């Protein structure tokens, strides 16, 4: 798989820019040699090409197991760590930058994380057209772009239409876990989630939960901690007709 430069926004937005406001900006980024090699050698076994048609997750992973979807996995640190720690589960990661995808593939191969698959595409389109309804056990968004400027708030991925889409794709009692280091974005997420009636906040205080031990530390988060930044974790469960509330914290 050859891709020495990531596609430009002009190339990538022609078909999809009118469908929804993107929560990311694509920039040309040169692939490192190891990332390119991982894409060339591992994509056929661990990569998933985008097709606007339903995807059988059981067939993709060769087994019927709970599937965790991580959106915007960056360089793949947390995704590979979790896939290695929970071999009984299956993990699908979506990222829009090829260098991160290549780095994740290389790390997954080194860790022998055979329960991991990756995609390089817009997560909204993947969810809408490829992921069957009620097919996911968990959705993770760790440190999504906060778009701090007010005029850019419309680009934040955590908006009502996106939450409704996640609600369709999660199975009953499925988990939505978000972590952010921007308090204003954390408050925005609480507001959005309070409007959607499909989800139940698992915080005993109705807002944030203590940092879950199963969420791996990344270099990004560790650097933030050294600089004195706080992190807010939010965990919600999709309601069903019978609700059994298990709280965290």
TrEMBL record:
The keyword Cell cycle does not apply. Belongs to the class I-like SAM-binding methyltransferase superfamily. TrmB family. It catalyses: guanosine(46) in tRNA + S-adenosyl-L-methionine = N(7)-methylguanosine(46) in tRNA + S-adenosyl-L-homocysteine. This is tRNA (guanine-N(7)-)-methyltransferase. Substrate binds at residues 149, 181, 218-221. Pathway: tRNA modification; N(7)-methylguanine-tRNA biosynthesis. S-adenosyl-L-methionine binds at residues 70, 95, 122, 145. It comes from Candidatus Hoaglandella endobia. HAMAP family: tRNA_methyltr_TrmB. One of its GO terms (cellular component) is tRNA methyltransferase complex. NCBIfam families: tRNA (guanosine(46)-N7)-methyltransferase TrmB. Catalyzes the formation of N(7)-methylguanine at position 46 (m7G46) in tRNA. GO terms for molecular function: tRNA (guanine(46)-N7)-methyltransferase activity. It comes from the Bacteria. Keywords: Methyltransferase, S-adenosyl-L-methionine, Transferase, tRNA processing. Monomer. Its EC number is 2.1.1.33.
């Amino acid at each position: 798989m050859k891709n020495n430069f990531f596609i430009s926004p002009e190339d990538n937005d022609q078909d999809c820019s009118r469908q929804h406001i993107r929560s990311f900006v694509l920039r040309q980024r040169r692939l490192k040699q190891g990332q390119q090699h991982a894409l060339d050698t591992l994509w056929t076994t661990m990569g998933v090409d985008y097709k606007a048609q339903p995807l059988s997750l059981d067939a993709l992973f060769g087994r019927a197991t709970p599937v965790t979807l991580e959106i915007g996995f960056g360089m793949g640190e947390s995704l590979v760590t979790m896939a290695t720690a929970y071999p009984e589960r299956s993990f699908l990661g979506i990222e829009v930058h090829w260098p991160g995808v290549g780095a994740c593939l290389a790390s997954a191969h080194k860790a022998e994380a055979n329960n991991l698959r990756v995609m390089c595409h817009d997560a909204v389109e993947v969810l809408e057209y490829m992921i069957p309804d009620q097919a996911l056990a968990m959705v993770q968004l760790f440190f999504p772009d906060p778009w701090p400027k007010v005029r850019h708030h419309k680009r934040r991925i955590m908006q009502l239409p996106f939450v409704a889409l996640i609600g369709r794709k999660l199975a009953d009692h499925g988990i939505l876990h978000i972590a952010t280091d921007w308090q204003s974005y954390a408050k925005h997420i609480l507001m959005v989630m309070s409007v959607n009636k499909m989800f139940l906040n698992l915080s005993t205080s109705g807002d944030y939960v203590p940092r879950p031990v199963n969420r791996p530390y990344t270099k990004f988060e560790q650097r933030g901690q050294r600089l004195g930044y706080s992190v807010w974790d939010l965990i919600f469960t999709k309601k069903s007709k019978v609700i059994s509330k298990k709280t965290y914290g």
